[in-house]
Amino acid sequence: MTLTEEEVLRALSGVKDPELHRDLVSLGMVRDIRIDGNRVGFQLVLTTPACPMADRIVQDARQALERLPGVTEVEISVTAEVPKGVPERTPLKGVRNIIGVGSGKGGVGKTTVAVNLAAALAQRGALVGLLDADIYGPNVPRMLGTHQTPEFDGEKILPVSAWGLKMISLGLLLDPDKPVIWRGPILAKALQQLLFDVRWGELDYLLVDLPPGTGDVQLSLAQLVPVTGAVIVTTPQDVAFYDALKGLNTFERLQVPVLGIVENMSYFVCPHCGQRTDIFRRGAVEQECEIRGIRFLGTIPLVPEICESGDLGQPVVLFRAESEASRAFHRVAEQVAAAVSVLNLSIQKAG
Ligand SMILES: Nc1ncnc2c1ncn2[C@@H]1O[C@H](COP(=O)(O)OP(=O)(O)O)[C@@H](O)[C@H]1O
Ligand SMILES: [Mg+2]
């Protein structure tokens, strides 16, 4: 008896994506089924190359197919297509998702997180852009070690490419030694240019590093483009967390969904002995998130290499790929990517 494609599909429709709570077939994740005697294969199309559940989904699919009579070999090739969280008719046509990275206050490591998340997503194979919208203190060029002046193609500004990312910052366009005083309308105009006068091209994720607080730039961003969601960065102290909640409320008021909260500088890892020290109450932010129904995106340790690599312009995710810090950023990147997928698919389902 030979196996049919219907039987394969039936088996795979019994396998659920643990995050999206729907089966692989109805999610459109199954493509290119191949049946060759006792061998079955297909292409698994995930919703992000940074899928935290990839191994489990592959394993579940494999088991489901191995249970079919006569199957002795299962071959699954894994690819990803990031769903679009931005409506079709927007000025940024090729950009699939716009993600704001915000915080309640400065100095919590927002730029550090934005840069390393962008690098981690790019490392996983996503097309990633990074827009430095911290108009008051554009630090992204320094943290990426990129100071090239962007080129102009006669119509638009070309983002500079750094470590596989496309990046733009006012820091690249203005004299770094002259302080800039922005007033509302000019500020909105500047952000508008960084969004629309830049040739972003095709991107899975455009990360926007926002200035601290709850001000004009957040408002302008939400008015100018459909933001898929916001990532809030906090540190573990109570005061910082309450500031983070203010940031979160701002996004909610602007009808920007909050993807979740990252806890930066969570714990200290001694570079000499490797011992972990929880300087602040461990797990407090995660607990608060749980109570409030907010996704906790993970913790990033307080370690000298994050600070050093920021100063050197060599993101830790790229230059210390094997470090604990880099692994932590990858885990957070996976959670962000998963939150985007969940949001986009729930919107598709509703609409
Ligand atoms: N987890 C961390 N461990 C060590 N240093 C950090 C960490 N996160 C951020 N820093 C350092 O703290 C400073 C402030 O970080 P930054 O990302 O510029 O904050 P923000 O953008 O919120 O103002 C920088 O010098 C950065 O290198
Ligand atoms: Mg910053």
Written account of the structure:
The structure is a single chain. The protein has 351 residues and is of the alpha/beta class. The protein has two domains: 5-80, Fe-S cluster assembly (FSCA) (GMP Synthetase, Chain A, domain 3, 2-Layer Sandwich); 98-350, P-loop containing nucleotide triphosphate hydrolases (Rossmann fold). Helices cover 37% and strands 20% of the residues. The protein contains twelve helices and 15 strands. The protein has helices at 5-12, 54-66, 110-123, 140-144, 170-173, 184-196, 216-224, 238-253, 284-292, 304-312, 316-319, 324-350; strands at 16-17, 22-23, 30-36, 39-46, 73-80, 98-103, 128-132, 160-162, 165-169, 205-209, 229-234, 258-263, 268-269, 276-277, 296-299. An eight-stranded mixed sheet has the order 8-9-7-10-6-11-12-15, sandwiched between helices. Helix 3 (110-123) packs across helix 12 (324-350). It is globular. The two termini are 42 Å apart. The model has no long low-confidence stretch (mean pLDDT 92). Residues 110-111, 134, 137, 139 line the site of magnesium ion (MG).
Radius of gyration: 22 Å
User: Strand portion, in percent?
Assistant: 15-25%
Helix-strand sequence: HEEEEHEEHEHEEHHEHEHEEEHEHHH
- CATH topology type of the largest domain: Rossmann fold
Tell me, what's the shape? globular
Number of domains: 2
The percentage helix is 25-40%
For the biggest sheet, the summary is: 8 strands, mixed
Total count of strands: 15
Are there runs of 5+ residues with pLDDT below 50, and where?
A: none
- N-to-C terminal Cα separation, in Å? 42 Å
The name of the CATH superfamily of the largest domain reads P-loop containing nucleotide triphosphate hydrolases
CATH architecture annotation name of the largest domain:
3-Layer(aba) Sandwich
What's the level 1 CATH class of the largest domain?
Answer: Alpha Beta
Strand neighbour order, sheet with most strands: 8-9-7-10-6-11-12-15
List bound small molecules.
adenosine-5'-diphosphate, magnesium ion
Structural class: alpha/beta
